[in-house]
Amino acid sequence: MRRLLALVLLALLPGCVSSKTFVLKPIPEGTTLGRIALKPAESTARVDPRAQSDFQSRLADQLKQVVGAVVADPADLIVQYRFVLFDQGSSAARVVSGLSNVAGSPIYGLGDGDVGVEVLYLKPDGTPIGHIVTDGPISGALGSTSAAFDSAAASVAKYTKANFTCPLCGRVGQANPSPQPVAGLKPFTDTKAM
To answer: Which residue, of 17, 19, 127, 180, has the fewest CB within 10 Å?
Structure first.
């Protein structure tokens, strides 16, 4: 009986599907990261305002934790995002898939969903300096939209950290050691990269 219970619980665990980030326009070298403002754009997928607000909150938290960024307005960088995919999948189908995997008949991806987020990095004047698309998979019987939002927000934060120069230490890929506003920071103005 314990073995059967353990197998059922194992079937309900979320699948191991990682988030993917696609770089459509890389960030120019030497771009400094200062204060960040988050700006939602009109989504091409239907997403209710409460879910959009939930994602923005998770994205702000990830940018603070991973990058050490100050999320405030006015900003030196605008992170504009919109949903390009919002498919919650079917939790019932994911449970059936998990149970079939335990029974020895693997059916991968049945009922899985996905959240796709497009991100534009903009100068304060609105000039784009970077463009990515990332996803947040919803997989496994316990897969949820919240987990997909966390995954997508974490991917955006990791990409941001890896491609901007820290304003205090001057190195790419370093978190801001002091998440306070940086006095006198000038926005990126290299027109050769555009």
So the answer is: 180
Q: For residue 155, what pLDDT is reported?
A: 95
Q: For residues 165 and 32, is the Cβ–Cβ distance under 8 A?
A: yes
Does this model's pTM top 0.85? My answer is no
Pairing of strands 21-25, 35-40: unpaired
| Domain coordinates in residue numbering, the chain | 17-163
Dihedral of CA atoms 160, 69, 154, 188 in degrees, nearest 10, equals: -20
Confidence of residue 184 (pLDDT cuts 50, 70, 90): low
Q: Is the pLDDT of residue 137 over 90?
A: no
Which residue type is seen at 81?
Y
Go through the chain and tell me how many residues it has: 194
Domain 17-163 has CATH 1.10.10: no
How is the chain classified by DSSP, letter by letter?
-HHHHHHHHHHHSPP-----EEEEEPPPTTPBP-EEEEEE---SS---HHHHHHHHHHHHHHIIIII--EE-SS-SEEEEEEEEEEE---HHHHHHHHHHHHHT----STT-EEEEEEEEEE-TTS-EEEEEEEEEEE-STT--HHHHHHHHHHHHHHHHHHHSB-TTT--BTPPPSS-S--TTPPPP--STT-
Q: Which two tokens stand for residue 75?
A: 């900003």
